[in-house]
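Here is the promised in-class demo. Please do not try to memorize the tokens; focus on the logic of going from shape to residues.
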């Protein structure tokens, strides 16, 4: 999200409606960790997070996976504002390690239009991984353009703009422990 859309002042979390509490998130992420541990029993996995939104989810999910796991990260920028409706995704940071022959789990905060995940899936596939799965904390199916689904999904949510637990608006709110709905006053230009 570009910084020229900064709100005048970030809203206090107390002015936002909590959609998912930290307890609900922790419980679901623990279940997801158990599912992954079961599916890849006896194997190793590489968790590839998408910067920066997936960092908190990846940190908590990783600690719930009882397997040999390594981390890597992609950076992306997308053009989703009013002047760039093409949905073009650009890689700003590639992975540092080879994904060839690895069990790759792409870890993302939210599946929205699906353009980012579809793009990154194609990038990962060029590495010829042994297997490829997507773990997404949130899914907003109402806005999907690319028909891509998560293999491990935390929660399906309504078509609202959410912040917290890694998700931002203009880089703010990533450190909120709960996932909150950003009200209209949170969008006011600075
Ligand atoms: P997609 O390519 O449209 O699926 O977009 C995925 C990216 O858009 C996510 O990784 C987020 O960075 C961002 N995004 C989509 N919806 C939200 C939201 O409700 N809050 C914060 N970021 C969002």
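The designed amino acids, position by position:
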């Amino acid at each position: 999200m570009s910084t020229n859309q900064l709100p005048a002042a970030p809203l206090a979390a107390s002015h936002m409606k909590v959609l998912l509490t930290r307890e609900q998130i922790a419980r679901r992420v623990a279940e997801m960790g158990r599912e992954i541990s079961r599916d890849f029993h006896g194997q190793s996995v590489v968790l590839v997070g998408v910067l920066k939104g997936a960092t908190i989810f990846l940190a908590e999910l990783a600690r719930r996976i009882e397997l040999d796991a390594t981390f890597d990260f992609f950076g992306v920028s997308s053009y989703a504002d009013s002047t760039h409706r093409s949905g073009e995704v650009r890689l700003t940071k590639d992975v540092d390690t080879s994904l060839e022959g690895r069990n790759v789990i792409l870890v993302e905060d939210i599946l929205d239009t699906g353009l980012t995940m579809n793009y990154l899936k194609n990038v990962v596939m060029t590495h010829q991984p042994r297997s490829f799965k997507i773990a997404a904390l949130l899914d907003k199916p109402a806005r999907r353009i690319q028909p891509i689904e998560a293999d491990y999904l935390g929660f399906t949510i309504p078509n609202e703009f959410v912040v917290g637990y890694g998700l931002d608006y203009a880089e703010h709110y990533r450190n909120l422990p709960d996932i909150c709905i950003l009200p209209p006053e949170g969008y006011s230009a600075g």
